[in-house]
């Protein structure tokens, strides 16, 4: 077996930045929760960072019209009456009682909340990001909104992590959109053969996990409102007695359950679907076939729905060997499909191909419902 058939070349591993953005979008909580719809993204006609940056500006401007949320901040102050918790050490050390004062620690209402600080940081980051992708008008808009927050007393955040405080309903969308924008991978500029990411360099394993999470988000958004159940990371157990500890465990990537009880087990791969055998012919990879076979056959004891469960091995393809190919067959009563989906395609085409693979008989409306049960 040739080594070239087993290894991925750099041009196969490095996914175009637009494809990474697409996967990050589908994997985001903003998309799953319906803050960003498929039609909004597919019909935008602009790059994803510019679209998400514009949506962030729209969401923040809407908060201005309804007034920004107010939060609590921990304050330490010497005051004339007890409020909150007394700091006995400071009170005694500074002899405050003789001055008619007492040192207290208490929560105080403020507009300079953790959420508003996070939005200011996101706007400042968005301005730099959009300038780097030549979206000057959107970048200026972000700067204006960030400056307005600063003038209102919103300081720079002490930490750039996602706010831990409970979000009000009005804050959920702007914070979710801001989080997505901050997570976008950004290529560095310069004459380099392969793009590097200024925020993060993705390994092949991380890209595969991102592909898996994007599929999960896509299925949740489009299938859950239609009565499907979508689960991720579900464990399967062997039909064996006195199971030895050396027996490998089985954790699935995604399991779909249709409204009528049909089960589809999906495993995501970031590699070539076919491999060249010793005589030069292409064939499916044996470990992947055995993996899917074990998933399906080991669960048949659980009920009739598992005896006809469908198995799908879904490959993300990119680079010079990108292809869209599906190989379907019946394996001991189980419908099985090995499918390769190209990442260097439009967002609409990617969505249509993936959904058609798992639910070929379903027709999705133009504006899909997205209330996740």
UniProtKB/TrEMBL annotation:
Key words, A-Z: Endonuclease, Hydrolase, Nuclease
Pfam family, one: McrBC
GO biological process, one term: DNA restriction-modification system
Keyword Nuclease: yes
Entry keyword Ligase: no
GO MF annotations in UniProt: endonuclease activity
Domain of life: Bacteria
Name of this protein: Restriction endonuclease
Species assigned in the record: Corynebacterium tuberculostearicum
